[in-house]
Amino acid sequence: MKENNINLLFVDDEEEFLNSMSRRLSKRGFNVITVNRGEKAVTLAKSTPFDIAMIDMKMPGIGGEETLKAIKEENKYLEAVILSGNRFVGDGFAPKDSAAFLYLQKPCELDKILEALNKAYQKTLLNRKA
Ligand SMILES: [Mg+2]
User: Model pTM greater than 0.90?
Assistant: First the structure.
């Protein structure tokens, strides 16, 4: 599928990773907006409609799960991928108490990220139809 026109909110406090991965995702057709803190993401999501989000779990200030829960109050159809640094979590569906659709373990390759983002986007589309 084409990733064109998918509005992605990407939140990570590791700015080198944030910037390099967002450039690569932009080249694949995503409209990527980056922020380095959960608080900024929550503020931004109040004024900007996003289709999907990719959020780092561990950040200074509010963490990824809390950020996502706040974003979903404004964007109820939005699905998200949480990036976890915890090697015991692994890739796959997020735990039941999570607001995320999928978890990905860092470090992760572009291909895995693209697959996860596309799955999340498909789920967003389903949410809107339901
Ligand atoms: Mg982090």
Answer: yes
Q: Give ion ligand 1 contacts, CB < 5 A.
A: 13, 56, 58-59
Cα 76 to middle of ligand 1, angstroms: 25
pLDDT in tens, 89-110: 667 777 788 899 999 998 889 9
- Going along the chain from its start, the domains and CATH numbers come out as 7-129 (3.40.50.2300)
Cα 35 from Cα 13, distance rounded (Å): 8
Question: Distance between CA 41 and CA 50 in Å, rounded?
Answer: 11
Distance CA 55, CA 83 (A): 6
